[in-house]
């Protein structure tokens, strides 16, 4: 058996060597993509071009504009004279944010009896992620601006000798002290690249033999189903693992994501995780008739895994049924483990549940693949 | 270029597409399916962030504070801890993204005018959720104290507005998307991403002919290069246009997105986009010899940059100059601008022409490159 499997592996490797462009795509493609994607997404959204319509032109309004400018999020670049001019700027896509300071801003601040002072923020809702960042940041800037105005007032009121309540907020952030977005995004993106590559390499193998008619030739050899599976899985795992190592190197040394846990533990779990995903890939390979079908199935599976990975929409907030269904998705457990090892320096005692789930899924998926393959091949 | 021969290739290719019913329906429907999946996966509206509370005071005021904390729906008080160890475990496992610890003597200190310290612990591995939780907790605490102060002053016979303790109000107006639904901004952009699918299908079909050896037969026939290319691509462009209609219908009728511009213009500019992506598909298929390599290459080129570089999540203006250049070389980037302009802003050619022109230039540039490559390969 070992001999026959070895022969198949050698055949696969020769085939790969002939198609060197494919090897290049597989090994360097994801790495380059990761660099591109991580660079594009790990930066915070900042220096948003902002239009300021200052109808007050008072010391108070100027200091508010200054506060917006200091916030890193806003870049007050345009100073249109009225709302219509600001609307034109937004329409042309020159700026997604306009801040309107009404003419009585200072008066109302000084004399609150005239009603509370207000600032109007106009957002381009089409750029929704920018708009949300701008909104959150504007709330912060205006809030702390109001806070400083209040503090000066408080001194005057304190003279009345009424004990005024005050609260201090002590914030401590764990695992990601600066709340850097890249600490979250980059490991997740590594996970998505890895699953894409692993599924694509493993799913096309048997489908290709079938489409080209060479599968029959393999079947008339004394080779058994399980040997075929192993022979197809090994090169796929090797390639995907090399990819993982390259991408991990990038994540740690180019993007400076901290590695706080055990390196050996991560490398071992990564191998097991790939075994699980490649089981899925071989299953797709066994049930699809053409490579095009296989690719579409890979896409569907990838999308499904991404939905339930907890990357974008927290799994805890999903309805009961979906929340439990999410546990059937290997990448969810893998991302939790990856982040725990990298950022929290956690060991098995923290994520043993996820590890157990991964192991269980691996056994079930690979057994299923084997049964399906055997039925389809014999 | 002979029209009759071109039509013959088109007919042959359409037969190919139509004969394999599963492949045809998959080619046609897959963009719409991917759109639904992407919309549910990536519309990151961070809400209801899970928060743990440790109430060390257990007084009327501390209970009031905890009760109001989850009222707006930004955060949800999911866990109530009895001791610090529990809080730590929830944060470590990531079950809670933040924790608020109310010290003993919270109420007494506030009433006496002393400043109690509210401790906020944030689990930072998911900065999006952490930022929302942090912003909400600090904003809520500020408002809580301001209200308390106003009540204290009122009891002392001094209305709050006279003391100037009212904060500055923020009045919001959101254009094009008044409820600031993230999804409405994302849908037109996601359509641009999933409509890379027809180009991937075309790449696969072209390389399949090479792999199975039928390409040589076509080359040996009197069909010219340009005729062959046009004939092969037109069916996929047509299928792409049908998918465009399907995706638009899904966005409007399933997700309730607004469509304010002209559908005719959208289809016209979509054809412009398909021209550019099909030209890239041609280049990929000229360079690769197996379907496997072609598919992986096509996915790498169309999907990941399309999703992450096209300004969908991370705006173009925040990018480094190098990245900005790269982003502008991806056809999807321009198509995202077109989609958002037509869907949400109801824009016409007067504002959209730069993007349309960029796609047209890209299309012809890549197409001529592809024709040259095919000539070299075929000898």
Average pLDDT rating of chain B:
82
Task: Give the percentage of residues in beta strands of chain A.
Answer: 5-15%
How is the main sheet of chain B built? 4 strands, mixed
Q: What's the assembly state of these chains?
A: heterodimer
The CA-CA distance between the termini of chain B, in Å, is: 19 Å
Biggest interface and which pair forms it?
A-B, 116 and 129 residues
Low-confidence stretches of chain B: none
- How confident is the prediction overall: mean pLDDT of chain A? 82
Q: Give the radius of gyration of chain B.
A: 29 Å
Helix fraction of chain B, binned, reads: 55-70%
Helix content percent band of chain A: 55-70%
Alpha plus pi helix count of chain A:
14
Q: Based on helices, strands and strand pairing, what is the structural class of chain B?
A: alpha/beta
Please report which band the strand proportion of chain B falls in: under 5%, 5-15%, 15-25%, 25-35%, 35-45% or over 45%: 5-15%
Q: Strand order of the main beta sheet of chain A, please?
A: 2-1-3-4
Describe this structure as you would to a colleague.
The complex is a heterodimer of chains A (378) and B (379). Chain A has 378 residues and is of the alpha/beta class. Helices cover 69% and strands 8% of the residues of chain A. Chain A has 14 helices and 5 strands. Chain A has helices at 2-18, 20-42, 59-70, 83-91, 105-110, 128-158, 182-212, 214-220, 225-254, 263-287, 291-307, 320-325, 330-344, 348-377, and strands spanning 48-54, 74-78, 97-101, 118-124, 168-174. In chain A, strand 1, helix 3 (59-70) and strand 2 form a beta-alpha-beta unit. Chain B contains 17 helices and 5 strands. Chain B has a 4-stranded mixed β-sheet, with helices on both faces. Chain B is elongated. Chain B has helices spanning 3-19, 21-42, 60-69, 84-92, 106-111, 127-155, 160-163, 182-194, 197-212, 214-220, 225-254, 263-287, 291-302, 304-308, 321-329, 331-343, 349-378, and strands spanning 49-55, 75-81, 98-102, 117-123, 169-175. Chain B is α/β, with parallel strands linked by helices. The mean pLDDT of chain B is 82. In chain B, helix 8 (182-194) crosses helix 16 (331-343), helix 12 packs across helix 13 (291-302) and helix 12 packs parallel to helix 17 (349-378). Helix content of chain B is 68%, strand content 9%. At the A-B interface, helix 2, helix 4, strand 4, helix 6 and strand 5 of A face helix 2, strand 4, helix 6, helix 7 and strand 5 of B.
């Amino acid at each position: 058996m070992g001999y026959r499997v070895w022969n198949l592996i050698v055949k696969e490797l020769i085939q790969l060597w002939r198609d060197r462009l494919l090897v290049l795509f597989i090994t360097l493609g994801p790495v380059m993509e990761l660099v591109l994607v991580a660079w594009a997404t790990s930066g915070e959204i900042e220096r948003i071009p902002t239009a300021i319509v200052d109808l007050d032109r008072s010391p108070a309004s100027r200091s508010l504009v200054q506060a917006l400018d200091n916030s890193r999020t806003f870049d007050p670049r345009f100073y249109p004279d009225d709302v219509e001019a600001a609307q034109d700027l937004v329409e042309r896509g020159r700026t997604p944010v306009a801040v309107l300071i009404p003419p009585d801003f200072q008066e109302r601040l000084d004399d609150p009896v005239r009603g509370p002072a207000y600032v109007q923020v106009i957002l381009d809702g089409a750029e929704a992620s920018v708009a949300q960042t701008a909104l959150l940041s504007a709330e912060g800037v205006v809030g702390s601006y109001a806070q400083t105005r209040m503090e000066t007032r408080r001194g005057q009121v304190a003279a009345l000798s009424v004990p005024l309540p005050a609260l201090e907020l002590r914030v401590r952030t764990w695992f990601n002290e600066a709340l850097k977005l890249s600490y979250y995004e980059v490991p997740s993106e590594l996970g998505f690249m890895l699953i894409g590559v692993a599924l694509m390499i493993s799913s096309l193998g048997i489908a290709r033999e079938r489409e080209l008619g060479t599968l029959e030739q393999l079947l008339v050899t004394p080779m058994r189903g399980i040997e075929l599976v192993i022979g197809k899985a090994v090169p796929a795992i090797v390639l995907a693992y090399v990819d993982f190592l390259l991408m991990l190197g990038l994540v740690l040394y180019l993007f400076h994501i901290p590695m706080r846990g055990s390196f050996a533990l991560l490398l071992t779990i990564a191998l097991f995780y790939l075994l699980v995903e490649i089981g899925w890939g071989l299953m797709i390979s066994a049930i699809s008739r053409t490579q095009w079908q296989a690719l579409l199935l890979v896409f569907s599976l990838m999308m499904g895994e991404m939905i339930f990975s907890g990357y974008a929409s927290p799994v805890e907030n999903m309805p009961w049924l979906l929340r439990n269904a999410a546990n059937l998705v290997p990448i969810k457990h893998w991302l939790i483990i990856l982040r725990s090892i990298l950022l929290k320096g956690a060991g098995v005692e923290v994520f043993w549940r996820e590890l157990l789930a991964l192991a269980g899924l691996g056994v079930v998926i690979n057994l299923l693949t084997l049964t399906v393959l055997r039925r389809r091949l014999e | 270029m002979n029209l009759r021969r071109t039509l013959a290739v088109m007919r042959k290719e359409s037969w190919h597409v139509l004969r394999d019913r599963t492949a045809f329906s998959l080619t046609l429907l897959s963009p719409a399916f991917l759109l639904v999946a992407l919309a549910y996966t990536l519309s990151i509206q961070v809400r209801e962030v899970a928060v743990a509370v440790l109430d060390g005071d257990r007084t009327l005021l501390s209970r009031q504070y905890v009760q109001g904390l989850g009222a707006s729906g930004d955060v949800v008080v999911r866990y109530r801890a009895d001791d610090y160890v529990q809080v730590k475990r929830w944060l470590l496992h990531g079950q809670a993204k933040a924790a608020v610890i109310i010290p003993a003597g919270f109420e007494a200190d506030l009433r006496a005018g002393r400043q109690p310290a509210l401790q906020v612990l944030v689990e930072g591995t998911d900065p999006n959720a952490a930022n929302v939780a942090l912003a909400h907790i600090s904003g809520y605490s500020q408002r809580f104290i301001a209200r308390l102060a106003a009540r204290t002053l009122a009891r002392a016979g001094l209305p709050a507005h006279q003391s100037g303790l009212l904060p500055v109000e923020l009045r919001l107006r959101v254009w094009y998307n008044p409820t600031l639904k993230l999804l409405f901004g994302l849908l037109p952009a996601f359509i641009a991403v999933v409509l890379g699918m027809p180009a991937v299908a075309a790449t696969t079909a072209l390389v399949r002919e090479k792999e199975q050896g039928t390409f040589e037969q076509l080359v040996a026939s009197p069909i010219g290069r340009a005729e062959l290319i046009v004939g092969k691509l037109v069916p996929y462009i047509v299928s792409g246009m049908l998918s465009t209609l399907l995706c638009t219908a899904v966005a409007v009728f399933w997700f309730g997105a607004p469509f304010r511009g002209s559908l005719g213009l959208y289809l016209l500019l979509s054809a412009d986009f398909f021209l550019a992506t099909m030209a890239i598909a041609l280049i990929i298929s000229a360079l690769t010899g197996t379907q496997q390599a072609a598919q992986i290459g096509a996915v790498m080129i169309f999907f990941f940059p399309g999703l992450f570089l096209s300004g969908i999540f991370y705006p173009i203006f925040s990018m480094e100059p190098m990245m900005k250049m790269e982003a502008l070389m991806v056809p999807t980037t321009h198509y995202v601008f077109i989609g958002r302009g037509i869907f949400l802003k109801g824009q016409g050619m007067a504002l959209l022409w730069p993007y349309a022109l960029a796609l047209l230039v890209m299309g012809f540039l890549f197409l001529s490159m592809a024709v040259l490559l095919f000539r070299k390969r075929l000898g």
